[in-house]
Specification:
Blueprint: H1 4-15, E1 18-23, E2 26-31, H2 34-43, H3 72-81, H4 87-91, H5 94-114, H6 120-137, H7 150-159, H8 165-172, H9 174-180, H10 187-210, H11 220-226
Antiparallel strand pairs: 1-2
Helix pairs in contact: 5-6, 7-10, 8-9
Region (Disordered): 231-250
Subcellular location: Endoplasmic reticulum membrane; Microsome membrane
Organism: Oppiella nova
Length: 250
């Protein structure tokens, strides 16, 4: 059986850079034009908000901006989330990424000295997991040292999806998946992240209400909490899109 990318390349040679096809019951347009894709995903993204239909089960992923249809709820969420992704606020997370990168390089250096063969995929996966957990939740997992951390185990359950009947039906026949109540993801893992997110938000809001002098976090959840208030209250200038000033970060 040919790999998917080779099949797509063959279709492109036969039908051109833009062609339509069916994936079982779903109509799909295949675009292999970089300029057009840039317009669709960046410049004119508001015109193309719809995504491939996929049944997500009873998880809350269907409330995610990345899976929602381009309706009024999608527009409302996008207007809330967009200010969080300004370059100034994203740069505030670079300290986390730099620290984890240094730790990653140090770990590889130790194996270089010992001459021990390692599974690089495992280490790169751990690096990605550490970056995501720190930038999203503010949790320092160190997953290469703590492979049994609950966050790591539950993320693995969701990301390492086997081709079971639930995922096949949900992806290829979403209407049927909704009808029979198929679950494409491990619901215990989904509930773990739901509970973790709620717990962190509640703790952060309680912490903010007490107005302690500890340094304000710069992870994604904190930025979302901060977005409920004025950007300038936290040292961000939404016009100049600069860094938070030192005093406001204390």
């Amino acid at each position: 059986m040919q790999p998917v990318h080779e099949v797509d390349a063959g279709y492109q040679q036969k039908y051109g850079r833009i062609f339509g096809m069916y994936t079982f019951t779903q109509k799909v347009i295949n675009i292999n034009d970089a300029d057009l894709l840039r317009d669709i995903f960046v410049k004119d993204f508001h015109v193309w908000p719809h995504h491939l239909d996929f049944h997500l089960g009873t998880s809350k992923l269907d409330k995610s901006l990345f899976f929602m249809p381009g309706n009024d709820d999608w527009k409302r969420q996008r207007s809330i989330l967009s200010p969080v992704f300004t370059s100034g606020k994203l740069r505030a997370m670079m300290a986390h990424i730099s620290e984890i990168s240094d730790r990653f390089i140090q770990s590889l250096s130790q194996h270089e000295v010992s001459g021990e063969a390692i599974d690089i995929r495992k280490h790169v996966g751990a690096f990605a997991m550490d970056v995501i957990s720190r930038c999203a939740y503010g949790i320092d997992v160190e997953s290469i040292k703590n492979p049994n951390h609950p966050l790591v185990l539950n993320a693995r359950k969701i990301l390492s999806v086997d081709a079971n009947i639930g995922i096949i039906v949900s992806a290829l026949f979403p209407a049927l998946g909704r009808l029979i109540g198929a679950e494409p993801f491990d619901m215990s893992a989904c509930r773990y992240f739901d509970d973790l997110t709620k717990k962190i938000i509640d703790e952060r809001k309680l912490h903010n209400n007490h107005k302690t002098n500890t340094k304000r976090r710069t992870d994604f959840i904190q930025l979302m909490i901060d977005s409920e208030k004025s950007d300038k209250d936290f040292g961000y200038d939404s016009i100049s899109d600069g860094e938070p000033d030192d005093k406001s970060a204390e």
